[in-house]
Amino acid sequence: MKDELTAFQLEVEKGINEMLDHLGKHVVDRRIAGIGEIYITGSVSNQDIIFWIYPDSAALQVGRRYRAFGLPKRLLPGSKPQMDTDRPSAAEPQPMTDSKPLDA
Questions:
Q1: Domain extent listing, the chain
Q2: Whether the predicted model's global pTM rises above the 0.70 cut
Q3: What is the pLDDT of residue 95?
Q4: Sign (positive/negative) of CA torsion 28, 19, 16, 68?
């Protein structure tokens, strides 16, 4: 199953382990699970912290608080570049705000 883990999952898990090692803690109950998509789950030794690492996102539960983190879709492998509708496209002409030469 390790071959099915994404580079994102491996990198996040490595970061979690390095951070916990620095704090003198370690991951317990690590499991790889999932049917539709493979994920890594585990908890932190002697803490009420559980984590999940999905192919393109991660989640953390500390006590009853839950946080989810993910990659913007435009950074995912195989995704098509998408324009931000809130910002003008780089391809659209923009009015010049300053007519001075750059070397002036």
A1: 2-66
A2: no
A3: 45
A4: positive
Task: Identify any residues that bridge with 69 across adjacent strands, giving them in sequence order.
Answer: 58
Biggest alpha carbon–alpha carbon distance for the chain: 63
Q: Provide DSSP, the chain.
A: -GGGS-HHHHHHHHHHHHHHHHTT--EEEEEEE-SSS-EEEEEETTSSEEEEE-SSEEEEEETTEEEEEE--GGGSTTPPP---TTS--TTS----S--S-TT-
- pLDDT score, position 77: 57
- Tell me what pLDDT residue 76 has: 52
What tokens does 67 get? 């946080």
User: What is the rounded distance in angstroms from the CA atom of residue 26 to the CA atom of residue 45?
Assistant: 6
pLDDT for residue 96: 43
In the predicted model, residues of the chain with pLDDT beneath 70 are 1-3, 71-104
CA distances from 44 to 18, 35, 81, 101 (A): 12, 24, 37, 57
